[in-house]
Amino acid sequence: MTVNRKTKYLWNDFSSFLCNIDIGVGQGSALSPILSALYLSLIFHIFEKHLKNLNIPISVLSFVNDELFISQSKSLSISNTNLFYSYNIILSLFIRFGLVIKHEKAEIFHFSRLHRAFNPPLLDLMSPSRPILLSKPTWRYLGFIFNHKLLFQAHIDFYANKAISTIKCMKMLGNSTRCLIPLQKR
After folding, report:
1. Distance in angstroms (rounded) separating the CA atoms of residues 101 and 111
2. Which of the chain's termini has less CB crowding within 10 Å, N or C?
3. Is 112 left (phi over 0), alpha (psi -120 to 50) or beta?
4. Is 175 helix (H, G, I), strand (E, B) or coil?
């Protein structure tokens, strides 16, 4: 099976020519998350050493190829500064390893104990080629939806709407020529 992929190898200052590859593990393969985790584990090991040497208090959670950077501080400016430095460190490591970070997929999220309206500041990565990251109003992680105050209203709304739309779809299917049997409706 031809997969029409090309690769290029980088080693220090050496860069190979573009080669056709007809074998490999594509996205969606069962081996893909395992191999990406093995490859990324070295990068995150180096990253955590950099953070420790620079005394930047950032924690990293990783689930397959979704990473979460956690900064805990009473000040949003300190938290944003820590996120700024950690983001630039991981970006430089990815570039050194020949990988790309899709900035449009990067998200930041701040929790707050404030009782008033909460408008967190932007995270400006200070470079014309890099974006300004906006704080999201909700954060979705492993199927749970959180808001800035750790209230589950957004989570409840999302899954209640999903259940209601499923019931409406079942009602439409139940009125067709070959309707659903009661077991399927349950």
Report:
1. 24
2. N
3. beta
4. coil
Record the pTM: 0.62
CA 27 to centroid of chain Cα atoms: 16
pLDDT grade, residue 50 (50/70/90)?
very high
Residue 73: exposure state from Cβ atoms within 10 A (0-12, 13-18, ≥19): middle
Q: How far apart are CA 166 and CA 96, in angstroms?
A: 47
Cα four-point dihedral sign 14, 19, 21, 26: positive
Contacts of 67 by beta carbon, 8 Å cutoff, 6+ apart: 44, 60, 61
- Rounded Cα distance between 35 and 72, Å, is 31
Q: What is the pLDDT of residue 160?
A: 92
Nearest alpha-carbon partner for 48 in 81, 92, 89:
89
